[in-house]
Design a protein that fits this description.
Two copies of one chain form a homodimer.
Chain A lengths: L1 E5 L5 H9 L4 E5 L2 H9 L5 E7 L7 H9 L4 E9 L3 E4 L10 E4 L1 H6 L1 H7 L4 E4 L3 H10 L5 E5 L1 H6 L3 E4 L9 E8 L12 E11 L7 H10 L5 E8 L7 E8 L4 H13 L3 E12 L3
Parallel strand pairs in A: 1-2, 1-3, 4-14, 6-7, 6-8
Antiparallel strand pairs in A: 3-10, 4-10, 5-8, 5-9, 11-13, 11-14, 12-13
Keywords (chains A, B): Amino-acid biosynthesis, Aromatic amino acid biosynthesis, Lyase, Phenylalanine biosynthesis
EC number (chains A, B): 4.2.1.51, 5.4.99.5
Organism (chains A, B): Chryseobacterium angstadtii
Chain lengths: 282, 282
């Protein structure tokens, strides 16, 4: 099987993809759109893209492309705690550091550590944490370090000098597995955190209380939402669709009736699937 | 007045900041956190940061920092249509192009144009559209182009060879002006698109229908929402806060009572302000 993912090599998304698909061929893509295109054209069977809180891409693009390509559904979700490490070339020392490279969001997420331990050291933006790690591995004559993940340290043979320098223990990145088949994803080696349904809901007219009406469908059935996000439609300002996650296992009567009730209030629903949430390592 | 903004120079956020604050001192920052820190420590009076759909940063960080720094409020919102242009060094020709540089999201947003007109040309990721434009301006011996905005073309003296190559006419980026004073922002030279209130709502317990209960407060008052987004709290999985925009002018009784009713159902509300939405040029 061919699995597209948001590259570059040693990105957090690759770290997710290798755990979700340890025995499949992984195909790095330059951006989120390319991941969707590869799946839609059949060049890849599935793709792994970030859904929430990633440092590697504007994740709103994932929601927009889910909306634009109704043939693509969700098979699984992976949740990865974010862990940033400070790493240097193995032959160098951390004492005479002059510059620290990383993606600007990774530098921001490690702000407290860098500001107390390396306050005077210049920080330099890179297009990705992996690219920063690669650059450090290729320039041992420079007194530089990278903020990147464990996978990048292994891949580029760097020495980790400070572990877990991120400001919050509980910062997570969410990834989804997308495909056209929507075959049930299963992996015995990963811990299952829960189960949920994903859907895109579009209200035909923007009127006060419209979203409230949609949420009533779930509320009186005691279906709990774990995520809701409004996105502007590309047709202009003031038109929206919503990405909604409903917690729990799929129940034919409960979920089926909820979808029917949504249609009865003229809401357009693209049901993205009922899928499991897996814990990934970082 | 000192205005911090999400840099680098010639970024879309700078384009927004120069229109919102044409006569003030602009201070570029490496990331969104630095913008918030500059305002909180008083190093800057205000800051301009992306709120939605930016290609320059994971905008969920803006919501997270609004939540983490309750002293910071919103004074204004700017809406900018996204316009990407293909630009080259003025002494070069577009005929023998070998590489096109830009931010990966800008390349994705111009996918249709690039894929039909420049299908065979290699696309190369850069950390920002502005950095790509700068690189093109400094390397006239190379047969390269950048996808960037008008401002970058002007700043780095590049020649635009194709205008408006983005896939959607109606793609917008939203920016907010943040400060600790919350002085009413006004600018006679910008068109006002509307008025809205922003707030962060935190539910003490995650229970089915909790969000529905919050939205009831707005629905029965016929207050229309233009944006809603859930964000995971840093305290662990499964705890959320919501960013909500309510359309319209502030009305003491209506809004005041809505906030009181939210408190009566144990929702914690951080009211971010009632502010105008301005149309920006790109």
């Amino acid at each position: 099987m061919k699995i597209a993912f948001l590259g570059p090599h040693a990105s957090f998304t690759q770290l997710a993809a290798t755990q979700l698909f340890p025995n499949e061929e992984l195909m790095p893509q330059a951006n989120i759109l390319d991941c969707f295109n590869a799946v839609e054209k059949g060049e890849a069977d599935k793709a792994v893209v970030p859904l929430e809180n990633s440092i590697e891409g504007t994740v709103s693009m994932t929601l927009d492309y889910l909306y634009k390509t109704p043939s693509i559904k969700i098979e699984a979700e992976g949740v990865m705690p974010i862990a940033h490490h400070l790493m240097i070339h193995p032959e160098n020392s951390v004492e005479d550091l002059e510059k620290i490279y990383s993606h600007p969001q990774a530098l921001a997420q490690s702000f407290h550590f860098l500001d107390t331990q390396y306050k005077e050291i210049t920080r330099q933006d890179f297009s990705s944490t992996a690219a920063a790690a690669k650059y450090v591995s290729e320039n041992k004559d420079q007194k530089i370090a990278a903020v990147a993940n464990q996978f990048a340290a292994n891949l580029y043979g760097l020495k980790i000098v400070h572990r877990n320098i991120q400001d919050f223990e509980q910062n997570h990145t969410r990834f989804i597995v997308i495909s056209k088949q929507q075959t049930p994803y299963h992996n015995e080696n990963l811990e299952v955190l829960g189960e949920k349904s994903g859907m895109l809901v579009n209200l035909p007219e923007d009127h006060p209380g419209g979203l409230h009406q949609v949420l009533s469908v779930f509320a009186w059935r005691k279906m709990n939402l774990s995520k809701i996000e409004s996105r502007t439609l590309k047709t202009g300002l003031g038109n929206y669709f919503f990405f909604i996650n409903v917690v729990g296992k799929w129940e034919d009567v409960l979920h089926g009736n909820a979808l029917l009730e949504l249609q009865s209030i003229q809401a357009e629903v693209d049901f993205l699937g009922n899928y499991k949430e897996f814990l990934l390592e970082s």
